[in-house]
Amino acid sequence: MTSTQRHRLFILITLGLLSAIGPFSIDMYLPGFDAIADSLDTTVSHIQLSLTSFFIGIASGQLIYGPLLDRFGRKIPLIVGLVIYIAASISCMLTNSADYLIAYRFVQALGSCGGMVASRAMVRDFYGPRESAKIFSLLMLVIGISPIVAPTVGSFVISRWDWHGIFLVLAIITTCILLAVIFFLPESRGSNPAISLMPRPIAQSYWQVFKTRQFFTYSFAGGLASSGLYAYLAGSPYIMITLYGLSEKQYGLVFALIASALITASQLNRYLLNRYSSEKVAKVALMVQSSLGLLLAILCVAGAINLLVMIALIFLFLGSQGFVFPNTSALALAPFSRLAGSASALLGGLQMACGALSSGLVSYFHNETTVPMAATMAGCACLSLFILLAGSRLPAGTRSDQSHR
């Protein structure tokens, strides 16, 4: 391997780790819901709100980072965000109040979303639209490892120490990533003083991005498809551990198995793109995902599902997501150059807003059954497919006139 290839590999790994901070922050503490609730003298449903607050923080925080990344370059806002994340993680570790935990998780999310926005913008800076879809697939490999590693690490930490240690580990990991960013990650785009940070120009920039048909269609299609994943994240600890009686370790193993579907599909996507367009792959994947979601919901409502069937359907459901995310992300960002940071932020904000809504719905309609999770997953997939099909039938005219952006 040449030095250039090693440098390219290091950049990809660093971007992947930045993208994985948010997912790792979600997955690692899921096995500890019961332990956290017992320790803070509250209910699991109350602790689930810390997951919702995390989604809200990522959704809103990304909109702040977008203009900052376009104005000051990628690295400075990214470094600030990582420092905020580390401080919030330590606060989560030290808290003895569920309400404070919910608040600190919101701040933690504000820090983590800097890495998510910057990594997507850097992919857009470094690569063209078609190659970006393949790069996003590679990043999915790193992101996808977090659901395998994080619950296992979380379960180990809880069994050896207690849930407070989870947030200490997160702070240590992010400190290592921060050092890599400071000393080794190159700046992909310099500062641009022409980008205004006043509210009105920022709003105009976001509106310019939002009203682009290609961005609107693929950002919402991808965001709603991802929401099925977040509904699963919110509902699976109670369903797997409480309803089906799995231990925390067994839950971690099931979580890892299901996450492997996401990883495998995202890597197969790279090879499919050599023969098919991103649009075609995303469309077929959403059709499959919608069918699986409906089947899962019907079986849960009818009470005709067992643990093995549920795991199999969720495995295939999230496998479909491995084809949806890289392609819809690349297609949503493709029209933009000057406003790549704002487009990346708005894309991530919309995705996480949908995720916060879906996880909130699962918590709100919690009725000690599998139905809220399954119904939310099915609804997200079907609505995503509808938006993709409707958007593709609108008159063309937004794909070839975006070079000025």
TrEMBL record:
Coiled coil stretches, renumbered: none
Membrane spanning residue stretches: 9-26, 46-65, 77-96, 102-123, 135-158, 164-185, 215-233, 253-272, 284-305, 371-390
Location relative to the cell: Cell membrane
Domain of life where this protein originates: Bacteria
Domain Major facilitator superfamily (MFS) profile: start-end pairs: 11-393
UniProtKB keywords: Cell membrane, Membrane, Transmembrane, Transmembrane helix, Transport
Membrane protein topology class: Multi-pass membrane protein
Family statement drawn from the similarity comment of this UniProt entry: Belongs to the major facilitator superfamily. Bcr/CmlA family.
Name listed for the protein in its UniProt record: Bcr/CflA family drug resistance efflux transporter
Organism: Parapedobacter defluvii
